[in-house]
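quick one, two chains, predict together pls
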Amino acid sequence: MKASSVTTRHPIAMAQVPIRESLFGSGKVLGVMYLACFLIVALLVLIPLLALVIGSLRNAAPGLPGSWTLTNWGGLLSRGVIGTFATTIGIGLASSLASAFYGTAIAFILHRTDIRMARLLAALVSLSFFLPSFILAMAWIIIGSPGGLINGLLQDVLGIESFKVDAYSHIGIIFVIALHQVPFAYLMMRGPIIGMDASFEEAARASGASQLSVLRRVTLPLLSYSLTSTLVLSFILAIEQFAIPALMGIPGHITVLATQMYLLVRFPPPDYGLAAALGLSLSILTAFALWLQRRIARKNRLAVTTGKAGKLALVPLGRWRWMASFFCWSYVVLALFLPVIILGYVSVIKYFNANPMEAAYTLRNYLFLLDSSTTLRSFWNTLVVSGFGALLGVVLATLISYFTLRLKPPGHTALDLLANLPFGVPGVVLGLGLLWAYAYLPVPIYGTVTILVIAFITRFLSYATETIGGRLVQIDKSLEEAAWTAGATRLQGIRKVLLPLAIPSLQGAYFLLFMAFFREIASAVLLYTASSNVLSTSIWSSFEQANWGLASALSLVGMIAVFIFMYALMLLTRGSRKGERSGMLPGI
Amino acid sequence: MGIHISNLVKIYGSSTVVNQISFDVADGEFVTLLGPSGCGKTTTLRCIAGLELADGGTIEIDGVAVSDRSLGIHVGTHERNLGMVFQSYAIWPHMTVASNVAFPLQVRGATPKAAIDEAVRWALNIVGLDALAHRHPSELSGGQQQRVALARAIVGKPKVLLFDEPLSNLDARLRDRTRAEISRIQKELAIPAVYVTHDQAEALSMSDRVIVMSAGVTVEEGAPRDLYRRPSKRFTAEFIGAANFLAMTWDGQVWRTTDGSAVDIPADQQAVAGEKREAVLRCEVLRVEPADVVLDRMHIALRGTVRWLQYMGPHTEYAIEVAGVTIVAHSHAEFTVGNLVNVTFRPQDVHLLPANA
């Protein structure tokens, strides 16, 4: 403890008995809970990472005898791998630039101009955040692949042979990743744009600046840190993106790091060692970018300290309004309406036909869903993994947040670091780490839903701690202290004061984890088996077997089920969340 | 029994925030810790509450040692039997007024339900909030929240009441009223109280005794009147009220100001010839008069020029240059900058600081 080491320097306190160590000082129960929480987090995070490090130094597949080697790391220098690095970074840069630009522009138009139906648009853009990446990719493959909708229309309906589109291309991948990440950029930029202190702009206008120069010389520079931070985070999400480059890149022989790992493990001859080395280097890349983002975010706090947010003046669009509307609506159409309509169409036709007038309609995909025990089981598994797993995640995240932000016992910074570490580990990499680890460890969970729950909690723990922690720091310390002075123990203070006040953020975190678990594919793709299929992996494997109709039907039914479930949950808890920000996104 | 604190030490990193503070609070006594921000007054209070772990010294509440590093004693906050009012009020927003006030009794578990209801009614009645028992804190004004905090602090009949700048978030008018209210309630209940503030008006008006603190140590303590009129430290005179400091020299017979005027200070303030001291002159005891007015023999007059003035409403604040020194005086008379004036005062209003002030 810091205080006691300093005490020895002070003449008064010299040579006195050191007071109780503060780990158990606030009660045995909390001390034990802290140790347990620390242990669980350490096991969750360190096991897959250590397994990867060890795996990258072995020359055999997980679980098989082998010897130590550096070949895997040497393999990184091969021309193919370097090319993959270049492709990954190129696609990451292009798609993150595009999504940050679109997301920021949409946030600005919706919240700072007099565009019509701003609330509806904001809700739709936020909604598209929850459309899983693999479903979006599927829809766009159906639309834009060589045998897909656009080409079908061009050829069969319009008779144009000379022009073809190809979704299995760099442009296609960048386009869909960007579409997928626009809501993320929008949600990241919305806070700073809405929360900006109005007096900055008012001061500029009072100094005689025109609307345009206020925007150019005050507003945008003030947002530049948030923008940079958004850009870096979008880049991280883009380079660790798995489903989109897997579905759209593998057919066209475009590999990024995440998909190359997958190919190395899934297709013969497998090279687990090289995959581990690749995964670790991808993690290092994302960790570096994350470190950069944290530095920027810290500077940002110093730069723009917003006081009380006044009423920000809306920019009148005038005759540009139709362009702004077109801009925002075209996003919603491309990212939400069109994919959902296409999936709906494909799910009710017998054979793929670009012309809906000539298609043969059927309900067999939906009937199959009801009949098939595998799909029913995957629904059940999803409920267990998302419903129950998210609950476990929220409990763990609540404990972590309390310990790292409130109690601060010895070692709490290490706990904080551990809990945040997986954010820099791409999903496929985490999956590979767990694959390695549980091939060695005498715990028979490989191929069960348990390992999926472990993978998902580990991967998204920091989302939940950010949401809950963000609320905890807002609850004034004196509220808890007042409980203690009134005679409450630490545990009573937590139960009667802290938890009731933090409940909205716990609900927000549960909501967030539930959706994240439901739409997660990257970390599951190396871990699922037929018996542990969840919805995302079922959709994935149907699509891999080129069963577009079944994959589409599953996607639609799954999404509708999840939205009904979440809506019911929201209705149930609405009373207590009145006026609270739902905390949809971790405020990274 | 009250509170007994001796040689309290609290260290943060390399800075000693509280450096061997000692004081007692007798049963029913109201003691205020007064000082500028960062002087260690709040930390001292939080050590009494057990919210901070003291690094040295002992704290006894009602005859029981609750903190003593040398014996390894640190009684938890919840076992110290306190009532505390926080600067932010810390009213729990998810509970009604009544449940906020009932909390200290409920959480200790020893009181039957009917007795709790009775005690809550009693406490709310004392602070005058009976009618609002079922409101939620968000429906209350700042002043009302303040009263809820007070009711919550007294409901359990604690051994000691602690106040951490409880009035600093109220507007001026409400502050005056609440000040009187807190004093009255504390006197009625006769619970020893420690009150922390940086506001001299609160300290002077409410306290039986004021402890002036600076940089982690006690500067001076005493009854409000004594501290104001006869401070023994320059810091006290500067921090409480508005004061001028005049350099005085003892010429063997009489104290003289730098411009040579003799100031007939009562005889107990004598010293060796040539000794220099500082005299405290409160701004409100000074009178400002036209330079040509015939002087009253009972008054001492210093001739000066008005350099600067500020109209304050009840009085005008004048900065008057007298023999190279600027004296600030509060007066009802009207002058303008550049006027030649006499600054006059009675000898008994001059307080000579001790040599080591």
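Chain B has a mean pLDDT of 90.
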